[in-house]
Amino acid sequence: MKTYSINLHLPENIIESIEVKQRTTFLDLAIKYQKSFDCKIVGAVFNNELCELKKEVSDNGNLELITLRDKDGYLFYLRSLFFILIKAASEMFPHATLHIEYSIGNGYYCWFEGLEWIEPGEIEKLEARMKEIVKADIQFSRRRVPTWSAIEEFRKNGLMDKVSLFKIREEKCTSVYMLESTVGYFSGYLVPSTSYCDRFSISFYNKGIVIVAPDPSNPSVLPAFKDSPKYFNIIKEHAEWLDILEMDNCAKLNDLIREGKSRELILLSEALHEKKLAKIADEVYRRNKVIKIVSIAGPSSSGKTTTANRLAVQLRVNGIKPFLISLDDYFIDRDRTPVDKNGMHDFESISAINVKLFNENLDDLLKGHEVELPTYDFKTGRSMKSGRKLTLPENGVVVVEGIHGLNPDLYFNVPDQKIYRIYVSALTALNIDNHNRISTTDERLLRRMVRDNKYRGHTPVETIRRWPAVRKGEEKNIFPYQENADIMFNSSLVYEFSVLKKYAQPLLENIEKSTPEYREVKRLLKFLSFFEEMDDSIIPPNSILREFVGGSVFI
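The chain above was modelled as a monomer; its predicted structure follows.
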């Protein structure tokens, strides 16, 4: 019998060279080496390719066993948990359609089309049924079939969202999953069986349910649900708008593009943004005798710069004179910037900002004094005088843009009632289909990738490599304060994935398989494959998307 030479990567940077026999599965190896890991092994990476544990070893190479602590492992778990929910829900509510929607707090919001209300007792029964399925340790099975055959199978099982989705797929074959008699499709792999998903909770939330999975940072403990009502309301608003357009998934977006209705969709999307910004400007105008600072914060690639500039235009329409200030200009000298545990400069820490000078400048402005603002030279890493002098008139407002805009530690000299706080983020409610959600994080990652390549000379690989550190900084410095906002602005545009595809796909396709980031590259390419490409020539120059793809009047 044939054998293969494997370099098995274990925790603590241990590499063990092993010989495995033909027909050995990654699951066999996971069982053998589970004791070396502090939580359940759920998947594998072999020669930089993501694999299910049931797959057999068929070559020599490098093997990593992944757990819930890994991003890919967490997604394995989450998809599998969703499939269990789909099966249980189809049994309990056979005449309703389950929609797995967006993240909320540390959970995921779901609702049932065709079911007006869920009684608390029904939620308890649903959770109990899911636990029965988990305890039964039912195998998830996957079949590769011709795409036309998959479409017919989806049609037979009433999964019309998936029928529409696969009409534009260029792949000849598609993976269809089965959980007993329940048919499903997922844009990624699953764990071997239901017993792996032994930690979760379900609770009633806003006429639907929220399901919570373990936190990857501490997978052995199931956290309590943490609500984020302002966040939920703004993304729900977006979902309701998509409902009006009858466009809750990418298949419907693709249909509209093929029908030649891109221009109408772009105009409507941009008008929605303009209407929202005008409403915010009206509120600032109404309270202008009190509000003197508009503080705009949000995570990376949320469109803060364009939002600040477009809001400034709306403020001027209302007779208010805006003065834009970027927190980036208040960076302290690089040699004084705090470092993280890896010795890298932590520019996303509020300690990297000269908060004292910032507050002194604001205090002087509010007192009617002239202030010379600083600027930061990113090449030399030095703070210096800008020559830009500012005096705040009676009808003036300072618009501050930066990631720390909602952090209460930023403003210690300014009365709270004088500050109007805005949280900006790209929060899409568009989904691939009813059961495959789109992460808002992916939207921002694609935006940043395109922008970094176009304006900053960074390759997609560099952007992907830095992204975990960016996300870690957001989790620490931005997301904990998002509920401090007076209002949230959703910068997502329903059509943008079809535009970003034009720019991102060629960049990703040029990345070699041997690149460590290739797994993420492959995932993003698969994601983009679901979208029809859209012509971006008719996107207006003040659009938030122009900040990333080019042609912005503000940059």
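The two ends are 64 Å apart (CA to CA).
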